[in-house]
Task: structure prediction
Amino acid sequence: MDQHRADEHFRQTVFEYTNYAYSLSYRILGNAEDAQDAVQEAFLKLYRNFAKFDTQKSMKNWICTITINTCRDFFRSRRRYKDADNIDDNPVSDQGASSAGVENKIFTQELMQPLDIKYRAVITLFYLEQRSVEEIAVILKRPKTLIKVWLHRARNTMLKNIARMERAPIAS
Amino acid sequence: MMRCKKAQKSFDELCRQGDQQIDPAVLDHIAKCGRCSQKLAQWHDIIHYLNVKSQVVVPERLEEQVLAYVAVRSQQRKATSWLGLAQPIWASALAACVMAAAVLLIPQFAGNTGKNVQNSASHSVTFALNAPQAQQVVVAGDFNRWNAGECKLSRASDGRWTITLALQPGAYQYQFIVDGRQWMADPDNPITVPDGYGGYNSEIEL
Result:
């Protein structure tokens, strides 16, 4: 009976947070196929540890931590085995979206792809999710000072990328 | 005169909350300092690019795919432990095939909406390696996107490492990773293909 209740709770959690986990994975990994695989794997880890969840803490933060760790593992395995240029299609373009969709993809990749996985994670959490440095430190289990350093480095790299993109506009 | 470094520490706050709660001295410095105002404009560019140009479209029915994946993979782990580890590899594989039929229809996450979790026909395959000295053995291949941390084998008392996976029909290349550093093809599988790194992958076809 308890197992049934736990499974139902897990099912509700999946329906509540899958979109969030996918968005996070997609922004970190930069392609739809890997993001989808990462989300599945992240929820499998969540399921296996579901009983250990401390209900006093935030489920969203926990899912965020698991998803980022899973993305990191994917990134490492992909770096070893896949050609770095082999980026798969975004569902935006799969659905026959406009050239604006393609442009978005190009700009996002130009900005995010050169960054290391940890920098992509802090940029996503800080700028897109509007989280504080303190929250990010808790999620990534790193000191606040290190998060600030990562943000600083990521920002500088992105500023350089923007300057480069402005000097040489991307052909559509 | 305020230093640029101090003013730039307020950039994130400025971008997030506007200039309502910012020290007027900082705003005054940015207005007068060409370098800081240029950098602030670039800062706005970053946030603009990220917010406007990184819209994500979530695939339809992803939640159901996630539930199906979790159901199959979690049952698979139970099946592996139930099979026992002392059986010969292909006997285990055969037994696992029978087990797979039971694994395929898993109602555990079917909710009140009546959505049953199902999967198309798949094969259960047991990967095994005889490595009594090893501390850890992992299998990585096309089926797990060569993820070296995903499929850890379990050690039997005779030093044989095994894992049973449910795989869709198709051809898969794989290697074992012993103690996290030694990649090797399956010595019990005579079918190998070059891995592109000067070595060989083992291959199975289901």
Observations:
- The domain at 97-172 of chain A is CATH 1.10.10.10 (Arc Repressor Mutant, subunit A).
